[in-house]
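_Per-residue structure_
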Amino acid sequence: MRGRYMAEMTPGTERRRPGRAAIAAFAAICALAALPPSALASDSGDGALSPRLTELARPALAAAPPAKQAKSLSLALSGPGSLLRRGDRVVVEVRFDEGAGASLGALRDAGAQIVSVSPRYQTVTVAATPGSLTELGEVAGVQGVSEDLAPLISSEGLPPVTSTAAPCAGGFGAATSEGDLQLNAMKARTEFGVDGSGVTVGILSDSFNRDAGAPTSAAEDVASGDLPGPGNPCGHETPVNVISDPSAAVDSEPTDEGRGMAQIVHDLAPGAALAFATAYPNEVTFANNIAALANAGAKVIVDDISYFNEPFFQEGPVGVAVSEATAKGVTYFSAAGNNNLIDSGGHNISSWEAPAFRDSGGCPAALAAIAELKATHCMDFNPAAGVSNIDNTFGMTVAAGATLTLDLQWAEPWNGVATDLDAFLLDSNGNLLEAGGNYVGSADDNIKSTQKPVEIFQWENTTGSAKSVQLAINRFSGASPRLKFALLENGSGVTSTEYPTSKEGDVVGPTIFGHNGGTDTMSVGAIRFNTNSSPESFSSRGPVTHYFGPVAGVLPASPISPLAVHKPDLVATDGGADTFFGSCVSNAWRFFGTSAAAPHAAAVAALELDEAPAATVAQLKQAQTQTAASVGAFGLDAVGAGLLNASAALGQLHGSNPGGGTAAGPGFPSPACPAAEKPAPSTPPPPVSPIPAVAHIAPSTSFAQRPLAVIRTRGSAAFASFRFRSDQDGSFFCSIDGGAFRSCHRKLARWFKLGPHVVRVAARNDEGEVDPTPAVFHFKVKRAG
């Protein structure tokens, strides 16, 4: 969601000031007018539609362009948290108590295109025009219709590393991740004579070969030896089995991150067969594709996707699918996430959790003055007892240009939600800035549309400087359950919080959640390719605690004794070289984030299965965790068992010899043309030098040239040119229309379609320090005449 500033409100509380009631009433009217229309949606007759979809279905907004729809709904136009679309349609989840499969004809008659069906969860994912949403909600048996939002992908966009150079612009082949050496995978191949042959590794991510602007294509990666397929110069000619790529189901912003993950697996386990399926557009489809990969023969599966709705306090549909695949002999790996935040005092501040909702007895004046909000029971964030200690706001500092992304959940099971919590953001003076995603109106509407105890909240700081804000959480209805919010910031954006330490039952820090923290998932954190002493600062921390059984169907799961799950399980390499994906560093594309770490661990599992084909899932996991190396003084919640060691893991399996693996000793010849011996690229990168210390002074970025704020054209797009400058030598990273930051040249020139656009650019100096306040330019392309 893209946050917007609200009109300031002054409740008029000064003593002896005349007209006090009138001033308060006027302020309430102003604040109501400033809120997004969906914030005040009530029972409008749209049946089971969520408040956002109720607003989107209104004729004026239904006919508006996507940019206006996103703005009116307080959603991002693109990227995590945005509406997923299929042409002029939005992707939504339709929920039934029963009869979902039998309702497909009625859904089609209502104008829906069927994307996927889940008999287990009685849901149908459909693509529908905004104008048909009302009719969709009125289909017999429909219990709820809710929007699908784009998920998080665990790749790191702006690592503080060295400069960009020209060879990266066009990509190059024959790149090998340094994880091959760091994790002793090459040593394992040599010692045990394995390369992953006979094992299929399944990969789930956004896309595989859909990014038309990527420096290389899948075919070029095969020709250079970086992927298997016909013509692979190393003889690995079995092509990647692409089960599904997202464009057939939903429009997205494909980055081909799945192909980057496949390159990592091929580097370490070049003999393994590879398969890919998209994890889009929602959890149910994600879960279905886990089963599809297992049915296609994958014995190792890895993903790097997290959905905002995935539950904090129980296993969701994806976690259930992981457990079922595990029961069939699949070893499953997932990125731990890139959501850890560290403040200036060294505290991990990326989440806050309380054992129960503590009613402060009131709410900030700006909320209490708006009768429709029913804001009279706000959370007391101070765990200290006593009236004098009550604090009904939670303070945070949001960096300039950053988007605050808050995922609030409470401990009630899916399909058994009886409590409605609503989140609000205020400025440091108590003025309302933004309301949360489920909003208010009818509590029954909020509970009915999703039956998920979750509120997603985003706000963009466009002020040009760091901003102090305050979170308030109101209990609209229901009980006082345990609650937790996580700041899902991809490693930066929030620099401080009011309560940075755990105390008196409140827990601060862990951000691993959903299937990433599942009991059967190997959750993998990240450690940079050129150090063994500390994990990446952004690598998400654990543990995870479940209070309910898994989401197994349409009925609510029963409570269980709290089950603590220590996560991550281990750490593996990120920042390794590839041919096209990530950030251009030392003349090489480098893939940063736990998205890169997880496929390294999956590749090692393929080597393990090559050595010991009859090894069980438990044996494969134990071999990795019991032989992992310690990482400095970091403990379980940061690095799990430690740094993965492929040679030691295979050695443990060889010693126990599960299944009678082929005997081999030191010096056993490696397979022909392993990843480390690929053909040399036509433009070889120079040797990688150690990443230098971060500079004390970050660069400052600005626009040396930019177009008019409104560009008029007679066509469907206009050409625009930009030039960037910095007060220090170095390079630049650009983000276009909310997309991920990627390396770019000093000059950017490209076509832009009709509608609003935004270009962000951040300079990085030669010491690796990145401008924390990117330069931002908003403009529009309009049709002339």
Remarks:
- The radius of gyration is 26 Å.
